[in-house]
Known about the structure:
The complex is a heterodimer of chains A (610) and B (351).
Chain A: E1 13-14, E2 16-24, H1 29-42, E3 47-52, E4 61-69, E5 83-86, H2 92-98, E6 104-108, E7 123-127, H3 129-136, H4 140-158, H5 163-173, H6 178-198, E8 205-206, E9 217-220, H7 221-231, E10 236-239, H8 246-259, E11 271-274, H9 278-290, E12 295-299, H10 301-306, H11 308-317, E13 321-327, H12 344-348, E14 358-360, H13 365-382, E15 385-391, H14 392-395, E16 398-401, H15 420-424, E17 456-458, H16 472-490, E18 497-499, E19 507-511, H17 516-528, E20 534-537, E21 540-541, H18 545-552, E22 556-561, H19 567-576, E23 583-587, H20 596-609
Parallel strand pairs in A: 1-8, 2-5, 5-6, 6-7, 10-11, 10-12, 12-13, 13-15, 14-15, 19-20, 19-22, 22-23
Antiparallel strand pairs in A: 2-4, 3-4, 9-16, 14-21, 18-20
Helix pairs in contact in A: 1-4, 1-5, 3-4, 4-6, 5-6, 7-8, 7-13, 17-20
Chain B: H1 38-52, E1 60-64, H2 68-71, E2 81-84, H3 90-100, E3 105-111, H4 112-117, H5 120-129, E4 133-139, E5 142-143, E6 149-150, H6 173-179, E7 184-189, H7 193-205, E8 209-215, H8 231-237, E9 238-240, E10 242-247, E11 262-266, E12 272-277, H9 287-299, E13 303-310, H10 317-321, H11 333-336, H12 339-349
Parallel strand pairs in B: 1-2, 1-3, 3-4, 4-8, 7-8, 9-13
Antiparallel strand pairs in B: 5-6, 7-13, 10-12, 11-12
Amino acid sequence: MLQSLDRVQGLQRVNDFVVKFANVNGSGSASANALFAKSILRMGVTATPRNIFPSNIQGLPTWYEIRVSEAGHMAARGGGPDLMVAMNPQTWDADVKSIEPGGYLFYDNTRPVPASKLRDDIVILGVPLTEITNAAYSEARQRQLFKNIVGLGALSALMNIDPAVIVQLLSEQFNGREKLITANVQALNMGRDWVKNNMDCPIGLTVRKADSVGDRIFIDGNSAAALGAVYGGATVCAWYPITPSSSLAEAFMRYCSRMRVDPETGKNNFAIVQAEDELASIGMVIGAAWNGSRAFTATSGPGISLMQEFFGLAYFAEIPAVIFNVQRAGPSTGMPTRTQQTDITICAYASHGDTKHVLLLPEDPYECFEFGASAFDLADRLQTPIFVMLDLEIGMNERLTQPFSWDDNRKLDHGKVMTAEELQAGKVFGRYLDVDGDGIPYRTLPGTHPTKGSFFTRGTSKDRMARYSEEGADYQENMERLLKKHNTARALVPPAITRSAAKPTRLGVIYYGSTSPAMNEAEQILGEKGVHLDLLRVRAFPFGQEVEAFIEAHDEIFVVEQNRDGQLRSLLINELEINPKKLVKVVHYDGTPISARFITDAIASRVQGA
Amino acid sequence: MTFLTKPKLHHPDLHKNSLGYTRRDYEGAISTLCAGCGHDSISAAIIKACFELELPPHRIAKLSGIGCSSKTPTYFLGASHGFNSVHGRMPSVLTGANLANRDLIYLGVSGDGDSASIGLGQFAHAMRRGINMVYIVENNGVYGLTKGQFSATSDKGAKSKRGVINTDQPIDLVSMALQLGATYVARSFSGDKAQLVPLIEGALRHKGAAFIDCISPCVAFNNHDGSTKSFDYVREHNAAVNYLDVITGRQEITVDYAPGTVETVQQHDGSTIRLRKLHPEYDMFDRISAMNYLHQRHAMGEIVTGLLFVDPDPVDLHEHLNTAESPLNAVPQQKLVPGQAALDKINARLR
């Protein structure tokens, strides 16, 4: 039954709203939800979905929230949704409560819901989805799956989503399997017809064709990073399953099976091993890289903790390694399915003893691909572990991002590897000899030359010729060279990107990674309020000169990040010897992605309060 | 402290193998282990085996963990690349190295602390993956570098030098290797070179996971009365099931064997292992009866040595993974990087 559709004047918004689906994990809703998001994208409107899910397989609540924004905003907006598609009785009360005033509640009213369970300041859209599907299908599985498509049909009619776009998406998804396509289109139309016959269409939230998508692609960061590893020439992947990184290794597997199987021999130009734990994963990576293969692992916080001893070995013995760290909320098991930027400190200074590591901080899938590929060049060039720091927000959600590109003339940089010919010609080889003054020594690969260039790799201290040594002078010289090498890295890693405010300002913001879309939007909102901010997006550690210059040029700098302690801020203070008072901590760490509203409020209150 | 390098001077009459190498070319730095350490005998056996098999030293990669045993790769095969990794983690490093270049020979050296305690997990998983390697545990039942604590292979009831009785059950790595699918499993004794050298040779020729548990008494901390890993105890309780000769393709068989006492194994690479059977009933092709036999004899207080199990046609990790025949570390860029055209197609699918 239709319930009080006309009681409230609902929100009136075109191409600018938030829709949230409340589902039961394992109910098959994911595919219909994705179709909803993609149909909006295909209409040329920026749509940014987020999976919000518990650490569970089946039965518990999950949510899929989509920000629709023709203006191109991709961050979580903050606040409640404008339209809630409430399909989970378990979370009904909280879901209904979260809807923005004047918003819409879409639900299955096959079984009547008492008025006390509803609200009178929102528009109630009841559609008897179960009744419609049960009348059309007899099999339980079909009823379950098609109910989602019937719901999609109903929503598309209510929101003016072009059905032809959905039909096109269905035919692409079921690629040639006509029976499936027909059945799905039929279910879609059932939903559309019911709504058109029984309700006023459209509601106040509508999608209109626009041009805010351009040639951008839609992909998750984990897949993009895996593709980057393929293009970066990785041949060995050793990993241990851990949320939210597992899909990165699995995507590498998928891409390799398509692009790395030799067409002539049918043999694999890659090796992927699911190790027994994270210790073994990183051990295999280090063994493979020592032996000249490009190797990586994908993990998350708990894995990073376990790998510490090996990171120290790779740093000290100078062995390349690439670690994709898809961060989640810690410490300990923490919130395994929630996002945070919380491993900055532990990765920058991983392992006991004095260490400093190279971190790359991608903001979106495009940079996950770019950094995913260049991390291998950096690892070989610098002969050290490179940490590519994703997080759940970038890694596990699909995003609109620039299309990937590759320069076919690009040569992979294998760094300083001495060849058999060079050894034969009498070139002096000392494994830890700083020949070029950049702190980076030459290495040889096992098996290179019958009599020259062999050396012993060890985690103990050694002299320049790789001979075991406990001499203080040898140890110190080596440690100083490692520091020099780290400084060399400053010029090799991707530089920070600055963006100047519309008007000159002494206020700055430093941010990184998945904070980008929220920061971009917040900067715009604050600018409109007259709060002008220069922005610096850090893309790597060690920090380049431009980071120092930016801090120098501003009186007060907000460091916006997604952890409790302001880890990047501490790193800046520690590494660049900045007066801590100059760097204002703006942190968001409840496990949800940071929003523009949060940043705007935090900065506005500070600036206006001052 | 710095390791001494041995003088490079060679006696002009030293015997050379067909590659032109003398035995000295397979040596490493001078050992810094205690005089009389069993481990040095194992190093000597490795040197002899590699020389006799005429392996180019630089085509061998030697890897180890941490401990006395793990120090030994410095003392043999000086022309080989070595990797002294992290305590208990040699198997994973070796696995990675093996994935990167399947053409080298991988020699992993570990100890009972390194493999049976901190590294038991990695030991087990390397065995079950079937890495093509030689994995030697120099087993002395004691932590030497930290001065005499029991290790996990110490027998229940064994007495430490300080007089403490071990109350924990021992871990038998040979039984584990058998159970986990290693395809060449042996036990030997550092004091029995005649048995050990051919066992190492056979393992080097084996194209799968080869494991040798080599009891190697610790002269400093575990060679006293009451120890079950002392020279005297092992000699008294050693029950060898067979002796090997490893015959490479070119060598002629000159030894005469009494009928019924010899078993011949053709290995995958064309070499032949010839065994003199000491226990006529022992069947080294039967994994289950080998485990049975070991346990029965162990209960009787015997230390069973010899080649305990061999699968002449092993399948290694590379075969399981269907990796390219040429080493992964040498695949040219054009085979690794699909290029812009492939990326265009991917981009198109993502719109």
